């Protein structure tokens, strides 16, 4: 069983190549690509046998992997992973939900802090209509 957050079959992954190009891939089993590797929604299906899939399987968001290509080794950054519902266990989903809520609360607190700072700054700056 894969650890929480690890890339697996069915997951959709955003990858950034050294030239800045970002591609979105979905890892599928051989034979699942049907007629075309490119789907209508811009996600490229890659099989578990492809060099890119072999490099990213089992990795996590933020990891850098090295892919062997005919032109040499290429460093690829894993930007975002959207896990397939079939690969996410109930405990992983609960843990992920808790983390998402914690991240949202932290973002809210930072936002409130920034708003408070701006209000304090505005309170200390003389307004154009003051002094008349």
**So, CATH architecture of the largest domain?**
Roll
Low-pLDDT segments: none
CATH class of the largest domain: Alpha Beta
| Global Rg | 22 Å
Binned strand content? 25-35%
What characteristic shape results from the CA principal axes? Answer: elongated
C-alpha termini separation = 73 Å
Structural class: alpha+beta
Portion of residues within helices: 25-40%
Order of helices and strands: EEEHEEH
How many DSSP E strands?
5
Mean pLDDT over the full residue set: 81
Total tally of structural domains: 2
CATH topology of the largest domain: Chitinase A, domain 3
* Biggest sheet layout: 5 strands, mixed
Give an overview in words:
- By secondary structure, the protein is α+β, with helices and mostly antiparallel strands.
- The protein has 2 helices and 5 strands.
- It is 31% helix and 25% strand.
SSE topology sketch:
Layout: E1 12-16, E2 22-28, E3 44-47, H1 51-56, E4 64-69, E5 72-82, H2 90-124
Parallel strand pairs: 2-3
Antiparallel strand pairs: 1-2, 1-5, 4-5
In short:
The protein has 132 residues and is α+β, with helices and mostly antiparallel strands. 31% of the residues lie in helices and 25% in strands. The chain has 2 domains: 12-87, Roll (Chitinase A, domain 3), CATH 3.10.50; 89-125.
Key phrases:
2 helices; alpha+beta; 132 residues; 5 strands; five-stranded mixed β-sheet; single chain; Chitinase A, domain 3; 2 domains
């Amino acid at each position: 069983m894969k650890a929480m957050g690890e890339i697996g079959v069915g997951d959709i992954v955003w990858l950034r190549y050294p030239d800045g190009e970002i591609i979105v891939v979905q890892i599928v089993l051989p034979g699942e690509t049907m007629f075309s590797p490119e789907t209508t929604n811009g996600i490229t299906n890659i099989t578990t046998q492809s060099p890119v899939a072999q490099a990213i399987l089992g990795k996590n968001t933020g990891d850098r992997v090295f892919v062997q290509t005919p032109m040499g080794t290429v460093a690829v950054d894993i930007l975002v992973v959207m896990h397939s519902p079939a690969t996410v266990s109930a405990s992983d989903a609960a843990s992920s939900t808790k983390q998402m809520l914690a991240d949202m609360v932290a973002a809210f607190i930072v936002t409130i802090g920034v708003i408070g700072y701006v209000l304090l700054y505005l309170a200390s700056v003389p307004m154009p209509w003051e002094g008349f």
